[in-house]
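Help needed: design a sequence for this.
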């Protein structure tokens, strides 16, 4: 029997809303055929940006959006994306498919998108192939309210007042596609570039240094040693692959299911160990670990451009999202910003499009269900879980986290990783005044069930009545392969 204890009157930190952020790169059909239709499109849009996508992301509660990459960021020269669209130079996207970029979606369009979404912009600047001057001028173009060549250029391009931007990434994966740098070399570059990313006109930049990946703890150590006190955040990237056999998002066996969830659970160990390294230099956790790329990475869908990274999204991906958020909640003192890769039509997307059609993926529904945790107090809790065993893979069957919002409501998120069996939970909830419990469940008839353009609602949230709470005693019966969010009011 699985056991759960929640102390609803013992907060242990705040779950920052920004861990529910998103990442959108000039990759495949994320920007073009995703957000951007152009103003003359027959698809309903506002200044070229799809209305249905904006509506869906606003409902889900998107807190921030990272752009323009990714690997693309370190070959992107921002001045190519401003001015009259028919005069913008074209470029080759050498990282992703070798397609021609027309640069119709640039700085002004990105900020328009963020304003329509009501979300915080997060720009990743070019360190790999760019210059210090180029990045300095981009910051000035965006944020300065005075008189300068950059502000004159912005006004010429139709924007009188500057924008506000908080999150600013100084390079991306500079250990790999962003320049194949050593940590010591990048650290010196970070100090140089960040010096010229100035605060103009009351705008305060939150400078994010390029951090590590997977279990490379040395990069984290070097960056903290050399750059602590000069950065406001340190990034981290982890993708949990696609199961044991690197198969597609929909064609896989139970061993792939189990293997991928086991890999996704490694986020807990990796975050804990990178945090321990950071604690040597920053014991107060003033610098967050910014997990600005995470998610599942499946083989692309058959018949699609392999450079576009288009993949379907099943209930398995919903479990990946659910357990990852539970891990972020556990580490809320250090992980305060995160971005799933990527929002539309790429990797673990929340939205897929096909012409005028748009569908919401199972991952979208997890974001929607879990938004109750945004800016809520993480609660002291403990769990003892039975094991889910598949061949040579053994993982805890149940993942959980809990929070209390500003109105005093307690929310408990539970994931049943078992592909076949329901999981019963008995527990205690102390310190909760209310006795009414309600819930929402996301599950599916098979491990590879997904939403398609023919069946867009094959996987969608339903009311959940499998939980009871009496005198503080909680009992829950989780369906197999499910994500559940309970509310105790």
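Sure. Designed sequence:
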């Amino acid at each position: 029997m699985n056991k759960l204890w929640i102390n609803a009157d013992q907060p242990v930190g705040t779950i920052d809303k920004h861990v529910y952020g998103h990442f959108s790169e000039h990759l495949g059909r994320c920007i073009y055929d995703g957000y951007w239709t152009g103003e003359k499109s027959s698809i309903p849009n506002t200044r070229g940006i799809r209305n249905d996508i904006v509506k869906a992301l606003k409902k889900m509660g998107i807190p921030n959006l990272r752009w323009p990459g990714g690997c693309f960021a370190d070959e992107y020269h921002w001045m190519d994306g401003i001015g009259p669209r028919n005069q913008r130079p074209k470029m080759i996207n050498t990282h992703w498919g070798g397609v021609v970029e027309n640069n119709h979606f640039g700085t002004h369009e990105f900020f328009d998108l963020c304003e329509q979404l009501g979300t915080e912009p997060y720009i990743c600047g070019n360190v790999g192939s760019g210059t210090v001057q180029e990045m300095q001028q981009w910051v000035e173009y965006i944020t300065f309210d005075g008189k300068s060549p950059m502000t004159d250029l912005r006004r010429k391009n139709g924007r009188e007042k500057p924008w506000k931007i908080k999150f600013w990434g100084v390079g991306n994966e500079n250990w790999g596609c962003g320049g194949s740098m050593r940590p010591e070399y990048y650290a010196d570059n970070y100090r140089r570039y960040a010096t010229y990313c100035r605060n103009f006109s009351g705008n305060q930049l939150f400078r994010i240094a390029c951090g590590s990946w997977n279990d490379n703890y040395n990069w984290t150590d070097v960056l903290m040693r050399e750059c602590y006190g000069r950065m406001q955040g340190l990034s981290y990237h982890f993708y949990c692959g696609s199961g044991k056999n690197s198969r597609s998002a929909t064609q896989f066996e139970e061993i792939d299911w189990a293997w991928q969830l086991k890999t996704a659970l490694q986020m807990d160990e990796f975050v804990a160990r990178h945090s321990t390294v950071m604690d040597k230099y920053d014991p107060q956790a003033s610098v967050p670990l910014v997990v600005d790329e995470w998610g599942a990475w499946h083989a692309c869908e058959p018949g699609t451009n392999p450079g576009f990274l288009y993949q379907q999204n099943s209930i398995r991906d919903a479990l990946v999202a659910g357990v990852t958020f539970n891990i972020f909640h556990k580490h809320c003192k250090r992980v305060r910003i995160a971005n799933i890769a990527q929002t539309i039509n790429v990797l673990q997307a929340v939205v897929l499009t096909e012409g005028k059609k748009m569908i919401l993926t199972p991952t979208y529904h997890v974001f929607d269900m879990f938004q109750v945790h945004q800016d809520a107090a993480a609660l002291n809790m403990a769990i003892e879980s039975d094991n889910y065993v598949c061949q040579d893979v053994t993982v805890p069957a149940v993942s959980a986290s809990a929070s209390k919002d500003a109105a005093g409501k307690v929310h408990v998120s539970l994931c049943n990783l078992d592909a076949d069996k329901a999981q019963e939970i008995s527990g205690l909830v102390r310190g909760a005044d209310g006795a009414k419990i309600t819930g929402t469940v996301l599950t599916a008839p098979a491990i590879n069930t997904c939403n398609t353009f023919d069946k867009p609602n094959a996987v969608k949230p339903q009311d959940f009545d499998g939980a009871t709470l009496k005198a503080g005693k909680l009992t829950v019966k989780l369906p197999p392969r499910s994500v559940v969010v309970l509310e105790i009011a």
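The radius of gyration is 22 Å.
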